[in-house]
Write a structure and sequence with these properties.
The chain is mostly beta strands and 204 residues long. The protein has two helices and 14 strands; from the N terminus they run H-E-E-E-E-E-E-E-E-E-E-E-E-E-E-H. It has a single domain, classed as Jelly Rolls, CATH 2.60.120.200. Strands 1, 2, 3, 4, 6, 11, 12 and 13 form an eight-stranded antiparallel sheet that branches. It comes from Rhodnius prolixus (Triatomid bug).
Length: 204
């Protein structure tokens, strides 16, 4: 299959994993292998030569969140990802969205912030409080545009979010997180590489 240059320039390669002290969940297992549509998903050589998933805009990877995450989310957790973008515009690495697909309950987005810099944001929205817009719990500036392989870790503990960059502590932020255990709507959907047709935010 041939791709024109503008599609190739929007390639993204990604590793993504959740973990707590008790378990871990690799969200990339939401991508079915063999790929359902090899125009948008494929394998690529990743960091240290390990295989990575490649995705292009147009990829539509979604699944009921319950297949990968618990109904009541962990009170303390970490998110680790290794990412390479050809175009530093960025987008959502993943998003759990409400049944109307208008609010991101939980997600991570990466957006360009000038030459050699990006913003990494953790979205955390409790629908039980009556909020109808996606809420950003913490946002950090990292010293990369992700045009080469870079690893980021986000750790959430009670009232604090820490970020590491390439396995080194980078920054931390005090946050007001209510509730401590996020309860997802039973009909919520997990998207990989975007936040659905309304919120959008496909990775570029």
């Amino acid at each position: 299959i041939n791709f024109n240059n503008d599609k190739i320039s929007n390639t993204v390669y990604i590793f993504l994993i959740f973990f707590t002290d008790f378990m871990e969940s690799d969200l990339l297992t939401a991508i079915k292998i063999p790929f359902e549509d090899s125009r948008w998903q494929y394998f690529e050589n990743g960091a240290d030569g390990f295989p990575a998933m490649g995705m292009r805009p147009g990829s539509d990877i979604k699944s009921p969140y319950r297949l990968f995450l618990p109904d009541k989310f962990y009170s303390q957790f970490s998110i680790a990802f290794t990412l390479k973008l050809v175009d530093p515009i960025g987008g959502f690495l993943f998003a759990v969205v409400n049944p109307l697909e208008t609010v991101v309950e939980l997600g991570v987005s990466v957006t360009g912030a000038g030459a050699g810099q990006s913003n990494v944001s953790l979205l955390y929205t409790d629908l039980g409080t009556g909020l109808y817009t996606s809420q950003t719990l913490a946002s950090f500036r990292v010293p990369t545009s992700f045009t080469s392989w870079s690893s980021v870790g986000l750790t959430v503990r009670d009232d604090r979010v820490d970020i590491s960059f390439n396995c080194q502590p980078l920054d931390s932020m005090i946050v007001n997180r209510e509730p401590k255990e996020l309860v997802f709507d039973s009909a919520s959907t997990l998207y990989i590489g975007q936040a659905g047709p309304i919120v959008k935010g496909a990775l570029h």
